[in-house]
Amino acid sequence: PTCRTLHKPYIHTIESWKAAYNFLSTPLAAKKLNMMLHHLHIPSSTNETLSSDFTYKGRNGIYNLGTTCYANALLQVFNTIDPLALSLISYEAAKLAPLEIELRAILAQLRFVRGTILSTTKLVETIPEFVENVQQDANEFLVESLINPINTQLKDRSITECLRGKRLHSICAYDGRVLHEREEDFYILEIPADHISKLSDGFERFFADDPMDDGYIIEETKEKVPAYHHKSIVKWPDFLSLQLQRWEFTQNMGGTKLVHRYGFPIVLDPNDLNCSIGTAHCDFQYSLCGVVVH
Fold first, then answer.
1. Beta strands in 174-223 (DSSP E)
2. CA–CA gap between residue 11 and residue 23 (Å, rounded)
3. Exposed e or buried b for every residue in 128-142, given b needs 16+ CB within 10 A?
4. Helix, strand, or coil here: 280?
5. What are the C-alpha distances in Å from 101 to residues 1, 88, 226, 227?
């Protein structure tokens, strides 16, 4: 089993399903099942009901180890992304590093264990220089402590592929020439929020061209020309993670935390946004699956 069942043995993996099927085909199955029916768990509340796959639905909490609430909140959202969570849970155990083993255990327990509170103690012990009593940004924890180590240690990006998008950074002259281009992967888009009240306006500013005050020097000719930064998304990820700007920095006042109301839709169609030239058409819509306020 890929999951540690602390109290209730609801473990669902391909291996356990095959084992159950093989057991049911033996002469011992009927007698054994008759004995077990007398001890079948009865839901203790109306919130705990059997679903079509015979598991009890609900949620488990995670202990706060100090100031690890940001990590706990992120793991709960992480678990809602089925392609990511299930691919890690079903990954061949022998190929996993300690981080992935403990992360898989937490995700499996969040899905299949009921009636207990979970702890991330063993998980954070696998993260270098992790300090339980120091606050960290949720987006930094996601990329630096989870996504990057998974990609590096496994040398296999299939697990995080559903979160990966691709964007193109271009430096353009005002006469239409493209002076330089650089393509890069992204797992989180940072969206402006200062003096903005809704997500569509944040995307409009995100895609806006940014003039280069000092121009750009063309390496071959050493010519300095007026130019601007242009960015476009050439591949939309299957699951889009957004980091909203939280601070506004000014020369005189320093940093001011943004606390105003900011609206976002439950369903987002990228094709309805005021995207930049060169941004790819998106073949699907995004439905909200989680919000982390940290």
1. 178-186, 189-191, 210-211, 216-217
2. 16
3. eebeeeeebebbebb
4. coil
5. 12, 9, 52, 48
Q: Supply the DSSP string of 53-115, one letter for each residue.
A: TS-B-----B---SS-HHHHHHHHHHTT-HHHHHHHHTS-GGG--HHHHHHHHHHHHHHH--S
- Encoding tokens for residue 121? 């103690």
From 5, 270, 36, 213, select the one nearest 114 (Cα to Cα): 5
Which of 254, 274, 285, 280 is CA-nearest to residue 198?
274
Q: From CA 210, how far away is CA 174, in angstroms rounded?
A: 12
238-268 pLDDT per residue, tens: 999 999 998 888 777 678 889 999 999 999 9
CB distance 275 to 200 below 8 Å:
no
Rounded Cα gap, residues 278 and 235, in angstroms: 11
Please tell me the predicted confidence (pLDDT) of residue 27.
Answer: 86
Distance CA(176)–CA(61), nearest Å, equals 55
Residues near 139 by beta carbon (within 8 Å), at least 6 away in sequence? 188, 241, 243
Q: Report d(CA 77, CA 241) in Å as an integer.
A: 11
Q: Mind listing the pLDDT tens digit for each residue in 142-152?
A: 999 999 999 99
Instruction: Count the alpha carbons within 13 Å of 9 in the hemisphere toward its beta carbon.
Output: 6
* Tens of pLDDT, residues 161-205: 999 999 999 999 999 999 999 999 999 999 999 999 999 999 999
Beta bridge mates, 171: 180, 229
The residue count for the chain: 294
Which positions ≥6 away from 221 have C-beta within 8 Å?
none
